[in-house]
Amino acid sequence: MSDLRDFLKKAEAEGEVGKIDGTDWNVELGTIVELIAEKTGFTVKDVKIVMELFLEEVKSCLVEGNHLEIRNFGTFKVKNHKARKARNPKTGQEVVVPARRKAAFKVSRELNKMLK
User: Fold this and answer.
1) Do 99 and 80 contact (CB within 8 A), yes or no?
2) Can you give the pTM of this predicted structure?
3) Which of 45, 63, 81 represents a domain boundary (last residue)?
């Protein structure tokens, strides 16, 4: 984890990401790809291909309605939401919100402990 923080501080100094110690920073896929390439010796291009394939498989799994558990990290799930009635706040008119599926992520117990 400290490797990522060091990498991000270097990127911040070079103007590539926002604040590191504040709440305003985001890590983008390209930053993670570069970090993995640096640590493994693989090319950035190869790591990017693997990361994109991984994310496509996660998406595919969710589209099929399956859940995906990554041990010590978390679980990606699809939640089904029933149709419901709601009100337009401007007009007060009742509207029907259709049923839909939404992706959800639940952090593992181990990762949650690390975050505390």
Assistant:
1) yes
2) 0.67
3) 63
